[in-house]
Every structure is written in C-alpha cells, then in structure tokens.
Amino acid sequence: MAPKEAEVELHAISRTPEYEDFMAKLKAYHQERGTALEAEPKVGPVYLDLYKTFTHICANGGYDKVSDEKLAWRRMAEQLGIHSSNVASTAFSLKEKYYKNLAAYEIKFFHGKEPPPKDILEDVSAKGGGLLSRTRENFRGAKRDSGTAADSAAASGDDGTPTRERPTPDAAPTSSVRASRGLREAPPQRVIFQPDTGPARPTRHVSGQQPSHLNTPTPGGHSGSHHGTPQQVQHTPVPLPHQPRAPPRGPSGSYNPPNPDNTSASVESYLPRSLQPPNQQHVLPMRPVDTPSNNPAEFARRRHVARSLLEPPRRSGPYPGVGFEGPNIYIRCLMALRSAIFEEQQFALYHLVKISYERHDKFKFEGFPGLSEGLVEKVLEIGSIFYDVKWKISWVSQNAADNFDTLDGNEGTEDILERIDSLEPKEVNELIVPEHLSDQMVLVNEAALTLRNMSQLRENAAHLAEFLPIKDLICIVLSLPKHEWLVELKHQMLDIAEALTPYLEIDSRDPLYKVLMKQLKGSDDRGIILTALRALGRISMNLEATNRLDKVPTAILTKISELMLLNDDELKDACLDFLYQYTAVVGNVDNLVKSLNCEHLIHHLVRLLSHNARRYQVEEVLKPAPKPATSNDPAAMPEDLLQDLLKLEEPERCNQWVKCFFEEVNDSFVTQIAAWQAYQNAFKAALQAIDQPLITPADFIRNSCAAYKSSKAEVWAGTGNPGQVQQKFIIRGIQCRLRPVGLDGRVFVRCLWDSASGRPNEKCGHFFGTKETMWKHVVTTHLKWVRNDKGGFDNKEEEVRCQWADCTKYKKPTKMKLALMGHHLQTHCCQSFNGIAINEKKAQAGPQPSDSLVVHFEETATAPDEQNPAAPPQAAGIPLSAVLILRNIARNVVKTSAQEDLLKQHELGGEAGGWNERLFRNVLPRLYEIMTENKVLRSHVFSLIEFAESERDL
C-alpha cells in the first residue's frame, strides 16, 4: 500500500524577513519597469504569497516550463495549498497573477535575460507561454497571421474560432471532423439502374448512327456541341432471359419509339422530303405575327417593362419597423423614465424596482448614462407636493446661483439648507389623498427605492458619490416636515447616505453632515438613529482622509451614552463605532470629558469588555500526584483469612487469593515465580494437613490471569547485564497489596511491633483483621504473658517495655501493672485500625489542592483573520470596540486642555493625578483580571493599561 502524501498546509502569507526583502526588490523593479504591482493578490479564497509562489514556480523550471506541461498550473495550486471547488478557475487565476506580477521579474533575475516590453507582456492576457522567446515581431506577426489566414484558426486549436466548413461530396469524411463543427450533409442521391430495352443489334441502315441515350449529357455536364466531342462510350446491351426479343427495326421514317411520351412533337410531325406530297414540297410555312390588334395584352406588358426601365429603382428591403424588436428592457425603461410621460414612467419604475432588487449585482449606473439623473429628477418632484417649488438640476453653476429652485450639478448647492428653511410649507391633508397625488407618491417612492437598491453595490455607490445632486436630494428629503407619507422615503434616503458616506469627504460645514446630525438629535425612531449613526461613523472610510466628526453637540453625546445602556446589540454596536471614530481625534476627547460624566462612561465600557462572554475553567496540574507505596512481595497470610480460603475449592480459592493479595493496576506487574511461591508458602502446609493436593503451576497462572479483566500473562524482555537481554515471565496488570483484603472486604492490619531480630525498622509481619486479635497476638507472642486458669491475665506488677513502632512512652523497661500496659497496647491497636478508615476517607476526597490549580478563562466574540486564515482567531464585536475606545481615551486625554486644567488644580491643592488617574484608577483591577482571563483581548488591554498608567509614579 502506497504511503499517503503529507497534507499540504493551507496557503497563507508568511511575513518573514525574506518575504519583506523580496517584496521590496519586487516593488522597486515594478517601479523601474513602469508596471503596477499587486502586493497581495487574491486567488480563490486566499491571499497569495508572492515570495512563496515565485520560489515554488522557479523550482519547477519557471513560467514557460510550467505552462508547456498539461495541467501543471493545477498541480502548482495544489502544492501551494490553494484549495477551491473550481480547480480550473483557481489554476488560471494563479497563472494570471504570476504572469502580471512575477513573470518579468523571473526572466530578469532567474533566467538572466531581458524580459519583453510590457505592451506584449503585462498589457496582454496570460494566454499561452513562450515568454523567453517573445518579441514584437513574432508576437504581432503571429496575431496578424491568425487573423487573416483561414487555416490558422483551425491550426491554433482552442485559440481560434472554429470555422464551419462543408466537405465536398467527393471527399470522404475523416474521423477528425466533429459533428459539432458543421451541419449534416445530405446523402448522395441514388440513381436507379434502368436497363436498355432497345434491340440487341442495330440494322445496317442505322449502324452509323449513335443511339440517342448515348448522346444524352450527364447531369451537371454540357453537350458535346459546345465543348468539343465528348468521349463516346460503346455499350453492348445483353438481352435478359425473361425479356422477349424486339422485332427488327425498319427505316427511320416508320420507326415508332417504345416510349412516345418522351418524344418531341416536332420530331413526331417531321416527314422526310421523299415522303412529302409533291404539292407541299415548295410551300413555305406561315408564322403568326403579334400586332396591337390581335395581341393587346402582350403590347401592354412591353410598355410597362419599358416604362419601369426609365424610372429610378425603388429601394428594396423591409419597411421601417418590420423585423425590429426594439431595445432591451434596460434601455426601454431608461428611455421611458426620461420621457416625462406619466404612463411610460409607471412602466419604467415598476420594472426598475424589480431589476434593481433581483439583478443589483449586474445593474450598474456606468452602463446606463442618464439613469442616475432621471431617478434623482423623479424623486425631486416630492418638493412640489409640500412646497411651492419645483426643483431642477442645472449643469451651469451661474444658473444655479441665480435661480432659487435650481440645483448646481457640478459643485453642489452649498446653501441648500438655507433655501429649504426659507420655503413655506403647503397644507397637506393626510386623510384625503387625491388620485393624481397618490400615483405621484408611488412613483417617487419607486424611484427612491431603485436608487437605494442600486447604491448597495460598491461600484454604484462610488458612482453616486461623484454625482453631487444626490447629496442635495438627501438634504431636501430629510428636511421635509414630519408626515406619514414620508416615513418610507426618509428611510430610503438614509440607507443611500449610509452607502455613500464611505466615498465622501465631508466636514461639519457640509449640508449633508448637518442634516445627519439633525436626524440623530431630533428623532426617536430606532431605524433613523441606527442608520444615521452608521452613516456618520463611516465617513471617508474608503478614502485616505480622516473622519474628524467635529462639532458634535453635547446632546448627541449624552444620547449616545444613554443608548449604549439598552439591551440592543445592533444599536450598541453602532454607538461604539461612532465613539471609536470620535475619540480618535484629540479635540473630540477634550470635548467629551468636558461634556459628559466620563467616569460612568468608562465603567460601562469596561463592563462591555465581557459582553456575551463565556466563562470556563481549566485545571492545571502543578505536580503529579505521588504514586502510593507498593510492595514487591505479597503480604503474609493472616490466620483468619487462611481458614476462610481453605473452605473454598480450586480454582475459586486461587481466584480469591489473587483478589485478596493483589490489586488491579494497568502499568504494574508481578513475576509469575514470585506469585507461585507466595501461593505455595500460604497453602502447602495447610493442604498437606488435610490431605488435599496443591494446584498445578499452569492452572495457577491461568486462574490468576482470570481474576481481573486487564491482567494477562506475557513474556517481558528487559535489560540485565550490559549487552544482555533478560526475559521474565510476568502477570501484567496487577501489583501486591500493602494490606491484604478479606473475602468480605475488610482490611487486615499489620502488627508494628519490633522484630525479635533486633534489626532497626524491621517489624512483625503478621496481619490481623480485628483489634482484639492483634492485641492478643502482642501480649501472648511478643510480651509472653501467660493466661491463668480462667483464661485471663493476672494483674501483677512487672517490668515491661513498649516496642510498638516509634512509641517513646515506655521506651525503657518500666515497672507497672499489666492492666496499665494492656490499656496502652489497646491504644496502638485502635490507632492502627482507625488510621485505615481515615486514609480511606482521604483517598475518596481526590487529589490534594496543592497538586493542581484551577484557572478561569473568559471567551468573547472572535473572527478569523482575513489576511491569514491559518492564524488564530482575533477579537471582534462589541468587546473589541469597547477596548479600542478606552485606548483612544487613555492615549488622547493627556494631550487635551482639560488635562492641563486638572494639573493646575492639583498645583493649587486639588486631587493628585491627571485624567487617566481619575478615569482608570477604579477599573484597573478589573482590567488586569480581563487581561489574564481573556486571551483574544489580552494584547489590547495590555496597551490600554500602558497608556492608563503612563502618568503614574510606579
């Protein structure tokens, strides 16, 4: 099986020092060559790394070699990690971007040759290859030959337009002729063979004559009298067996042909001179002559023909309008809109609304000159409904300045708001609407809706931004009085303003800026406020100019700070975008701190840093939990447990013994020989005493592995002496218990009395299941107390010493009553058994708190990086806008006049510190907490804290 190829990493721009150096050289070369460089072209869904692409293509031989190989550009795209659903389109896009940006650079610096001029390289398409050998002579000559020669189109394959050729009837069709290159040819007509039925042998009198059917010319040919004597073909007809023999032919004058229908009447009426009567041999035949009297119709026809020859020829062809279907629906609607005919405008606007909604991506102003003027002029008719004015557009600035109702189409009408304020509104009845007024309002709304739909396309928005009457139209409509009829129209104008402001450079003196501020200040409509905020916040977004947003009234700033308190994410996001643009200017921050209670604004912005945050925790292990102490040898067999196990039969006894003395641990093992020897030592003597056989080693190993599911017998290969491999037969998955466990689950405790051997730290190895049995074992086995006749112990006084573990109470022999010593020993036994219970409770409580640490994190909205899709997600949404506003305030507030005034108050005995100290002092702990818990906002909050603490004495 062939190994799988490593998956190619998704293509992304790697901004390494090599990449930056390469891009600098490439940019300098394009400037020297006079061509445009697209630094980060987009191929499919990703942005192209020109350095990585240039290196990879050159490693494969260069542009010409890759282009000569079939489907090589698809392979290049796949190897570069550019994936797309349309492989062919992605491959051609990669080839085109390389051709435009890197082909000349490759020829110059990789091949060491001079590239062709840009008019035959960058200025033409990336079709074909052969760049190293391309010159003006061979490139232009090839184009001329391909345009004039008839055979060049077919020879060029897919580059030329295939011609529809009809093969000649005599030419045999070839396999290379495709059915799609021409119409089907008619099959050759079949000629039915007709045998000659004439006499088999001509008579002597007609032997010199040629049969008539031999002189008949072939179809499409000519008779021999015009083009020489044709080649005569002699036929010798052979009579068929079933045909009767024809009678012998006589003289020509008496011969009757077998088929008289094909014989001419002149031939039938002809008589030889020898057969004609004597009185008719010298009579001349009479021929009729046409005269006006006997044939007037013929002479009338001749006069008509002669008269027509003298008259001038009449024009032949279709009459006007015949066969002409008219313009398409787009031109039809445009002409109908500009016609000023009401019915035509109804038709046009009805269809324009549908077209702008369904085909807005294809319906562009630049393709239909006059469409924007027609729509704007139609919407301007709204002024005559509410004012005694009829707005017009003039492209002569002097006419617009002299006439009150004329708008300047070249430079815009600067005093449009003053003109509107000077108008007297009409009294319009909202309850009773005349028919003509209702129809007019419908057309005005449809024209405005068409403008709104078309402005959502970027190309149309950029086109309308250069059409200055649209600004005057927005000001006129938004300045109309409040009326129920105008709600929809004003919303459409605000949508148009939102689409146009990214392409407009306007300041506080512009009428459009004033109108949008007025709508934001005086309206309580959520839609109007939301759209006005977006329109103001996006001024000059697609231009290099800065959106200063100066002279914003205090009432608007207060209203925005109050709107952010609402539970409306869309409105909150629009307010934050406006504040971000507003606080980017130092003068605006000065106005902000003087107009609002900025402490409350800062606290609310800090709360928004955790907007819709999801909290989660991760447990970090600081130190692995220590493994419990283990023993390599099985514990000694307690007497009580031995009696219980002897009551069982094999293999149950072996199985229970393993569970009592071993526990299940996946990464541990015991040797088979150690387990077998421990089993022998525990049961051999006891089984011999009751005459029972011991289990065989093979059965013991098999039953031992069946005690736990994860245990199994295997051969372990380890290292022994240097250079030697040692093998052990083990049971994997079990380890020895420190304390044996009974059949009922109770734990047996070891006696901790010092061993009789006297060696330090060596204790008694016996295990007991109860405190009583352990106490009896100590007093009888270790202290050698002797029972009396009643089964008890005499309470006499003796010198005794306690050797229990590390007990120091009676370390030296002490004279005391035996009862006192017995009570002392009971405390040791109770402590041993109680310690088992305490340890079990601790084990159930889990790991120690010091071994692990629970870390809390906070996750807010994120978005992928458009420039580098493989990069980690970036901060986005409301939290990002809030932290950027806070950073703008912290950076710019120290540059304002309000900062200087506050520092002067400090010199006069006021509160220490500037505006950053006053605004951010109470929220710094929360900012530090967010910086540690929110990974995506960490860098932004860090820069905010740097600006906020820049003036503090640390």
TrEMBL record:
<keyword id="KW-0539">Nucleus</keyword>
<keyword id="KW-0804">Transcription</keyword>
<feature type="compositionally biased region" description="Basic and acidic residues">
    <location>
        <begin position="135"/>
        <end position="146"/>
    </location>
</feature>
<feature type="compositionally biased region" description="Polar residues">
    <location>
        <begin position="206"/>
        <end position="215"/>
    </location>
</feature>
<dbReference type="InterPro" id="IPR052406">
    <property type="entry name" value="Chromatin_Remodeling_Comp"/>
</dbReference>
<feature type="compositionally biased region" description="Low complexity">
    <location>
        <begin position="147"/>
        <end position="160"/>
    </location>
</feature>
<dbReference type="InterPro" id="IPR036431">
    <property type="entry name" value="ARID_dom_sf"/>
</dbReference>
<dbReference type="GO" id="GO:0006355">
    <property type="term" value="P:regulation of DNA-templated transcription"/>
</dbReference>
<dbReference type="GO" id="GO:0003677">
    <property type="term" value="F:DNA binding"/>
</dbReference>
<protein>
    <submittedName>
        <fullName>Arid/bright DNA binding domain-containing protein</fullName>
    </submittedName>
</protein>
<keyword id="KW-0156">Chromatin regulator</keyword>
<dbReference type="GO" id="GO:0006325">
    <property type="term" value="P:chromatin organization"/>
</dbReference>
<dbReference type="InterPro" id="IPR003150">
    <property type="entry name" value="DNA-bd_RFX"/>
</dbReference>
<feature type="compositionally biased region" description="Low complexity">
    <location>
        <begin position="216"/>
        <end position="230"/>
    </location>
</feature>
<dbReference type="InterPro" id="IPR001606">
    <property type="entry name" value="ARID_dom"/>
</dbReference>
<keyword id="KW-0805">Transcription regulation</keyword>
<feature type="domain" description="ARID">
    <location>
        <begin position="16"/>
        <end position="110"/>
    </location>
</feature>
<feature type="compositionally biased region" description="Polar residues">
    <location>
        <begin position="253"/>
        <end position="267"/>
    </location>
</feature>
<feature type="domain" description="RFX-type winged-helix">
    <location>
        <begin position="654"/>
        <end position="738"/>
    </location>
</feature>
<dbReference type="Pfam" id="PF01388">
    <property type="entry name" value="ARID"/>
</dbReference>
<dbReference type="GO" id="GO:0016586">
    <property type="term" value="C:RSC-type complex"/>
</dbReference>
<dbReference type="InterPro" id="IPR016024">
    <property type="entry name" value="ARM-type_fold"/>
</dbReference>
<feature type="compositionally biased region" description="Pro residues">
    <location>
        <begin position="238"/>
        <end position="250"/>
    </location>
</feature>
<feature type="region of interest" description="Disordered">
    <location>
        <begin position="135"/>
        <end position="298"/>
    </location>
</feature>
